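User: I'm putting together a teaching handout on how sequence relates to shape, and I'd like one worked example. Could you take Beta-galactosidase from Persicobacter diffluens, show the sequence you're using, and then write out its predicted structure as tokens right after it?

Assistant: Happy to. First the sequence, then the structure tokens directly below it.
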Amino acid sequence: MRLTFSYLFLLLLPFFYCGWPLSTKAQVLELSGDWTFQMDSTDQGLTSGWYHGLPNGQEVHLPGSLADNGIGFPVDANTDWTGKLAIPDWEEDEKFSPYLQQEWLFPFWLSPKLKYTGVGWYQKEVVITRQMRDLPLELLLERVHWEASVWVDGQFVGQSNRLGTPQIFQMPEGLSEGNHLISLRIDNRIKEVDVGHNAHSISDHTQTNWHGVIGKMQLKARAPARIRHQKIMPMVEERSVMLDLSLENLQEQSQTALLEVVVFSADKENEIARMTKEIILPKGSHPLQLQLPMGDDIRLWDEFDPYLYQLESRLSVGEQEDVQLAGFGMRKLGIAGTRFTINDRPLFLRGTLDCAIFPKTAYPPTDQQEWKRIFSTIKAHGLNHIRFHSWCPPKAAFDVADALGLYLQIECGVWAHADFPASLLGEGNPVDDWIMKESRAIVEEFGNHPSFCLFLHGNEPMGQGQEAYLASFINYWKARDNRRFYTSGAGWTAQEENDFHNIQEPRIQHWGEGLKSIINQQKPNSNYDWRHQLLENDRPVVSHEIGQWCAYPNLKEIDKYQGNLQANNYKLFQKSLAANGLSSLAEKFLMASGKLQALCYKADIEAALRTPGFAGFQLLGLSDFSGQGTAPVGVLDAFWEEKGYIRPEEFRSFCQETVPLARFDQFVFKSGSPIKVKLEVAHFGEKVLEDVRPRWVLKNQAGKVIKEGQLPTCTLPVGNVNVGEVILKHFSGQPEHLIFEFNIGTFKNQWDLWLYPDNEIPTYEDIQVVQKLEAATIKSLTRGGKVLLTLPKGSVKPQFGGDIAVGFSSIFWNTMWTEGQPPHTMGLLLDPQDPLLKAFPTEQYSNYQWWDALTHADAMALTKIHPDLQPEIRVIDDWFTNRNLGLAFEVQVGKGKLLVTSIDLVHKQSERITARQLLISMLDYMHSADFQPKVRLKAGEIEQIYEVKAAF
């Protein structure tokens, strides 16, 4: 039967949701508490009839995991992990083997204290009350990992392998009043259905392949006439809601039921509207569609005003009733060309990944408090979007996202890979059918949440039939539910069926690009964008996993791991650092590499924001990724907490709803030369900004204003806006580090600029500048002369560091997982007060004025040259190797003094203003009384470092 009713209701739901059926009269047994458990590692429980009772059970507490209860096996070299190892024989690798003698430490991801993969039985005796005995009973387990089979009093009830939704079991009819034994057989092994061992839904790389049940655990009595599901579809243009109800009558005879639909505030203090209708329900399931007018004054849901309504449907037969509560938001997702829209306003997604990393528990939280902490942190960094990489979060995450106004991308928990053939898509594997069932369960469970905006099968699909399979997946959902947008997979493919493309391009560092990427190959500038890359796309493009810029691991973080996961990977890196005599520099490595990391993220994000028609980006990531060899890619740690080198307000300056942007062709200039700046705004705020007066300021490091100005008053529509152009000119006889600040009201952004005077390179009679040591040079040194040896790029021998790929950017992802993709270093650690750099203004980290030096340099492994050598310009090495690297060092040779730099300061010198200025600074230092090398070497010990090539 199909009926249509109309009524008016208006109300905000501030924070409360109830998505599961409930009844004021029905009985609910809470099953949390003590259970009896027995491990079944030999898989004998089924044949031995353990569902009648466990022979050797022990007490555990649920909800929780086995690790919570201190059950499992310590991890060691024989542990069977769920996840790919980057280096299978890693224990024999010289980077790790010296540090495994006293303690077994694992480098690839966080280590669980205890781990168990296999079958475990959980049993609990429950009491069925008199009120429950004549009603259908339903067992609800909010999140089980992974496959659960259920028995009652030895009678098999059912089996479920849902990963992203509650597992719900209909209990047998006729259970008597009194005691009954519920048995759960949970199996977390990968069996017929293989979602991919690296999928964040199951992998030890991230949340771990834990064992147990978390969240709600309830045995509910339901009315025989009940509401199985309600689907709420906002219709903004019609100012109404379409409500699809699925009603069910379990009894043999027809029932006369009373349907009530009520709208009220979350605290139930204000009832907005009520509708009552008598319905005849024959046996079986029956759809019912209602169109509910919302009136003219509806409030729309979005990131700026996440206004929530709540709808209650109540079905009563006599004294028995069944109730469904659901929150929803009135919002209209759309596509206009290559942009998303929200309520007919352009929408730009500023996203990050959530990869299911929860160090304290090793499983996702099911409480709103923890999700509110995480999501508030994400919003504090200017982001409005979260991609759940190959997993679906629990209900509490949706509730909080609804309330805070975040746009979520949900995935079915799959990451197919050729290493796991049963995970490949479109080849007839069981995972194909599982994805469809899992997707239906996810949409039925969470589809009413306004935050649920994007949906796909999972990450980076593989399989010979993947495109055809994913086309059918997309078409299936586009035909059935228009409340969100669908695409093939995260990463690829850009196929015709997609509503939007979630692909790897564009971004400033691609997989495998190494030192040929924009940030490492092109001189620093902010005048590029991705409009040309978008020309071939006729729909929104959201760039996949941009960033992946690493900071040095925060070794102080080790003590934070007091829960189920331990940072044994960080302990291993700590031992390596100590063995190389660099422990005292750990904090400085973190801060300097972190500043460079933030600079790289700023470049990535601003390029996206500068691009007209771009739909958004997904960072990998705002927080650290602790798996896949360890990838500290976040400005936050794995706990979503700050590391100390960039505050949320600093991050927001280049990543929020309104960002002032400046296009510079370069950041380094000759003093007195014109500096042309094109000023733009990426404005994706709530409304048009009227009567805006753009302002700019040029100031020095002390904050002294050198120049300032205003542009004409303008109106900023939502989108990308050009606001004008400024030409600056400033002359100084000294090198200067300046800051250009661009303000749009309270929104501010800034860029570093360097101005160097066009001075002649000084000629000091007592200093020779050479690119190799020849006999005359060595003779001069032995007699007390001074020599600057500036080696051509590529001349340092591999055994002395020449095989270490130096770039401007930090490491991409991590060198172990990428099989050594360059760069292999993480920028520089510098002393701004070092007299060597007196004429070359610098911070403690490498900023853009160091790009030229770093792209014309080799690393030098100083310990290989002499154990006492310390660099004047230190390179931060990969945390897997922790070598003592430098670009410059000084020594005594004979009676003379030698400064060696592996930066080529000679090649095309007239075209390299920063090389000239750095050379001037070095020469001034060598000419001063500050140049007093401490370590003494022989000329031959220097000559062995490099090889003379024809290009010398």
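A couple of points you could highlight for students: Confidence is low (pLDDT under 50) at residues 1-18. The first helix runs from residue 368 to 380.
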